Amino acid sequence: MKRIGILTSGGDAPGMNAAIRAVVRKSIYHGFEAYGVYQGFSGLINGNIKKLELGSVGDIIHRGGTMLRSARCEEFITKEGQQKGIEQLKKFGIDGLVVIGGNGSFMGAKALSEQGFPCIGVPATIDNDIPGTEFTIGFDTALNTVLDAVDKIRDTASSHERTFIIEVMGRDAGDIALWAGLAGGAETILVPEEKYVMDDIAERLRSGQKRGKEHSIIIVAEGVMSGTQFAEELHKATNIDTRVSVLGHIQRGGTPTGFDRVLASRLGAKAVELLMQGKGGRAVGIDKDIIVDEDILTVLEKPHKYHQDMYELSKELSI
Ligand code: F6P
């Protein structure tokens, strides 16, 4: 192994840059060369690849987004697309690839590994929905961005005695909603992992009102339904008027938190270590503060960890 390639793919996540920096610096420290693949798998197919030096990754550890750019690439789902990618890697003399991203990126890394090209998956997505790791890079920053918004909306909710519905991202996972709901003191949290009962929600709002609570925050994960749709359903059931805030892509940007920078540095470095040891086809992750790795061919078959205990707790604390 002489040359290590790095790419970021799928939705960007704060901390991706810190992971890129770790891969590049760790590689060069140990006498390897680092190559950046720009624009994810689509850049790989097109050979958009450049050598990275120590200075190429200076001044990026604190920046959101990804200096390598990102893309969602349909062509890479096909065998032909994957073969084109492998040809480009060979053309540049790259012997191992670190893929930083979410579910789709892991599928790409898995496909390359299945075809014999050594690949390591580094989990980075605000959704926190990758199996094999307790946390993905970017989740902590997104959580804090959402919390900041929830706190601000609470000021208005309380001043105007209103019920607010806040729609958050997360794709099919409810982690952003659950963690932000618990930390933000939301009265109700809707996640795809739990069935909601409108009567219970209505009862909760009514009993709150009876004891003088005139405002409420309801957090809806996009994987359940849109905030607007839920507002309509709630209105039908209770006649309560609400305001809806869709936080959208604001959740993906911003300066990565200390937690995300440290996580990204540790996971990026571990990916390089594995490639240096001649190991490919692995996914790295964190488990009880230990950096771990497992087979990328099977990791995606497991469900991602859902904290039902936190969901129950949030209900107890928001009576
Ligand atoms: O996976 C990250 C994510 O932000 C999801 O939470 C969301 O469903 C999706 O990406 C949005 O994707 P796009 O930016 O392509 O619209």
From TrEMBL:
The keyword Metal-binding applies. It catalyses: beta-D-fructose 6-phosphate + ATP = beta-D-fructose 1,6-bisphosphate + ADP + H(+). One of its GO terms (molecular function) is metal ion binding. The active site is at D127 (proton acceptor). GO terms for cellular component: 6-phosphofructokinase complex. The keyword Nucleotide-binding applies. It is found in: Cytoplasm. Pfam families: PFK (PF00365). Its EC number is 2.7.1.11. InterPro entries: ATP_PFK (IPR022953), ATP_PFK_prok-type (IPR012003), PFKA_ATP_prok (IPR012828), Phosphofructokinase_CS (IPR015912), Phosphofructokinase_dom (IPR000023), PKF_sf (IPR035966). ADP binds at R21, A22, V23, V24, R25, R154, G185, A186, E187, R211, K213, E214, H215. ATP binds at G11, R72, C73, G102, N103, G104, S105. Substrate binds at T125, I126, D127, R162, M169, G170, R171, E222, R243, H249, I250, Q251, R252. Residues 3-275 form the Phosphofructokinase domain. It is an enzyme of class 2 (transferase). PANTHER family: ATP-DEPENDENT 6-PHOSPHOFRUCTOKINASE (PTHR13697:SF4), PHOSPHOFRUCTOKINASE (PTHR13697). Catalyzes the phosphorylation of D-fructose 6-phosphate to fructose 1,6-bisphosphate by ATP, the first committing step of glycolysis. NCBIfam families: PFKA_ATP, PRK03202.1. Homotetramer. This is ATP-dependent 6-phosphofructokinase. It comes from Lederbergia citrea. The gene is pfkA.
